[in-house]
Specification:
Strand content: 35-45%
CATH topology: Alpha-D-Glucose-1,6-Bisphosphate, Chain A, domain 4
Oligomer: single chain
CATH architecture: 2-Layer Sandwich
Shape: globular
Structural class: alpha+beta
Mean pLDDT: 87
Radius of gyration: 16 Å
């Protein structure tokens, strides 16, 4: 299992907006070459996200299925990439003052990954996850700044009009 965390200098609502838009996964998930399809009810439980992942000409199609969704707080996916099996990806957003402590866990569920699971594989996954979290943090900060400049909260509601 690989566990990674990152303090993102944006509120959880901004980070959640990125997670809840399946078409944006290619922007921050390392190795994603193309988002091929996103179920319209993403990220509800059971929704699917199909992506092509790889490096250069070596690619494979991956399907992520939402297993747990607690909007604004928690999203757990099962990523299936045959012939390599499946993995559990758990993302938790913890409010940390005005910011977000993002907790990411990756654990193989089925396939060869369960047999070669251990320190070398977890180390490589942790490097990849660190790169992903850095990208996610940069995008979230950029979007937060953009919303502030436009006088809107992260959900796009004009400042001072929430709750009306």
């Amino acid at each position: 299992m690989s566990r990674d965390r990152r303090l993102i200098l944006s509120p959880p609502s901004t980070v959640w907006n990125l997670l809840s838009d399946g078409f944006r996964y290619g922007e921050w998930v390392s190795g994603t070459q193309q988002v091929m399809a996103v179920d319209p009810h993403w990220p509800d439980v059971g929704a699917r996200l199909r992506v092509r992942v790889g490096v250069g000409p070596l690619t494979l199609d991956d399907t992520c299925v939402v297993r747990i969704c607690e909007p604004g707080r928690r999203l757990e996916l099962e990523a299936k990439a045959d012939p390599f099996g499946a993995a559990r990806i758990a993302m938790n957003l913890v409010p940390w003052g005005e910011h977000t402590l993002f907790l990411l866990e990756w654990h193989p569920l089925r396939g060869p990954g369960t047999r070669i699971h251990g320190l070398p594989v977890d180390y490589l996954v942790s490097i990849r996850n660190g790169m992903m979290l850095t990208k996610l943090a940069r995008i979230a900060v950029r979007e937060q700044q953009s919303h502030e400049q436009q006088g809107r909260d992260p959900a796009g509601v004009p400042a001072g009009t929430a709750g009306r």
